[in-house]
Description:
The protein is mostly helical. It has helices at residues 2-25, 29-54, 60-95.
Amino acid sequence: MTYLWIVIGVLLGAASLLSMVRLVLGPTILDRALSVDVLLASAIAGIGAFAAFHRDPTVLPLLLVLSLLGFVGSVSVSRFVARRHREAEEEREAAS
């Protein structure tokens, strides 16, 4: 059981580290938004693994709130990017 915890910790830590690198170096806002989603998914996976191993159902509302936060954040960023893209196209059409 201890080895399993070590493997889970290493894998989630590697995913989080790579995601933080993309968050810092990402050239676009979509890269950064995706890295935040991966960080949130890693946190959800870690909390879920903790809850499963300790048979503790009290963290399920936290998992629900985190997943809802990730969904709302992704939708918000995609709407923001779509609006910026649409405004840029309208400006190009008006200039020509």
